[in-house]
Amino acid sequence: MPRSVDVADLVHRAQAGQPRAVARLISMVEDASPQLREVAEALAPHTGRAQVIGLTGAPGVGKSTSTSALVSAFRSQGKRVGVLAVDPSSPFSGGALLGDRVRMQEHATDEAVFIRSMATRGHLGGLAWATPQALRVLDAAGCDVVLIETVGVGQSEVEVVQLADTTLVLLAPGMGDGIQAAKAGILEVADVFVINKADRDGADATERDLKYMISLGRRERSGPMWRPPIVRTVASRGEGLDDVVGAIEQHRTWLVDHGELEQRRRRRAEAEIEAISVERLRTKLGYVHGGEALDRLAKQVVAGQIDPYTAADQLIEGLHAEEA
Ligand SMILES: Nc1nc2c(ncn2[C@@H]2O[C@H](COP(=O)(O)OP(=O)(O)OP(=O)(O)O)[C@@H](O)[C@H]2O)c(=O)[nH]1
Ligand SMILES: [Mg+2]
User: Fold this and answer.
1) Of 127, 148, 73, 94, nearest to 275 (Cα)?
2) Which of 1, 19, 134, 269 is the most buried (most CB within 10 A)?
3) Is pLDDT of 100 > 80?
């Protein structure tokens, strides 16, 4: 049993920007600490200030390199920066993301930069639940900007980027990204497209494919529309990053002017509440699983005495009864 911590003190120290306190709080999130509720309560009044930027794209497209370059750009504006590198496919933090540490090494000694790799550690509900809580920690710790990097492979990172005020989707020449991106539904979540590795052959073709893909995906929608710009970068040489920062800034202005920032943040809170609720129900059902009530209901379903919907009703009623 881990010893209980003085949450108020920990949050106080995190707010003062102490890296160890921030790290400890994020670990509590990852480990689903029993004190997390207390942590969330203590953090709440200090959140809502950070600008959240998501970066996603296929493996190796240059997300970490771009993230690191963006950190430099925001640092030169005097901002405090947090980075969450989220790998939905890895149950371990650290291991698979070792490369990220190397690429972000130049910021390792900067006290105003906090970098953290996140993993699900196998618990249910996973990143959809854990990432927003880690984000709250960084927000409360005074980060002006939080960059969330996630590998673009499927639904889970779409959920992760939904947290962001602005989402960058990275592509690179010759990786068949356009097609991958369309499959993963990543095109719709892009606020800014970045064609990285523009030093390589094929950047023109990638841009052409992308534009074609966007034209196919464009649906008729009422209300104001943001047209995601396409920016080219060579992240490994820091080229084009000013344009990316500019595009992020323009998008932010657009969000504010159209009342969309508020909307997005409300949707983020909705997703957060939902994720916590689902996680809690799952935990409860976990207790039920293999339990007496489920066993009894399963027998009745097998015997044709009741249908599975009725059985589910009874199971859920049982959960509520337990609560009362
Ligand atoms: N030629 C070229 N190489 C680049 C550029 N940007 C990044 N790279 C290289 O591409 C490789 C992958 O870069 P990362 O930044 O680790 O890519 P990533 O998207 O974070 O990779 P994962 O996190 O593993 O999905 C590294 O060897 C980088 O040095 C670029 O603009 N041009
Ligand atoms: Mg990376």
Assistant:
1) 127
2) 134
3) no
